[in-house]
Design goal:
The chain is mostly beta strands. It is built from no helices and eleven strands.
Length: 118
């Protein structure tokens, strides 16, 4: 069992940056691939970015490629999402997820709101 707690969301103007953090409980954090997903009002939850258990490979959606960077610190049981050049269409609730493979979550955090104003 893995418990995930996101932080770092907030409101920012277009072009700005935010850094999301996801703290995981449990000593098995380093066994899991970690990912970020988001859900905008009236839309389905979508994949944003993922990273393998050892940080050796990362994946991101076309909509955020070149702007968002996922990273992890297994010693701190934490995964990060650095978001730069934010756009109003990035506005959503962002969820941290853990799974045995990237993009296949088993566990979810409660979400953190990101709002980008134009």
């Amino acid at each position: 069992q893995v418990q995930l707690v996101e932080s770092g969301g907030g409101m920012v103007q277009a072009g700005g940056s935010l850094r999301l953090s996801c703290a995981a409980s449990g000593r098995t954090f380093s066994r899991y691939a970690m990912g970020w997903f988001r859900q905008a009002p009236g839309k389905e939850r979508e994949f944003v970015a993922a990273i393998k258990w050892n940080g050796g490979s990362t994946y991101s959606s076309d909509s955020v490629k070149g702007r968002f960077t996922i990273s992890r610190d297994n010693a701190e049981n934490t995964v990060y999402l650095q978001m730069n050049s934010l756009k109003p269409e990035d506005t959503a609730v962002y969820y941290c997820a853990a799974g045995l493979a990237p993009q296949t979550p088993l566990y979810w955090g409660q979400g953190t709101q990101v709002t980008v104003s134009s």
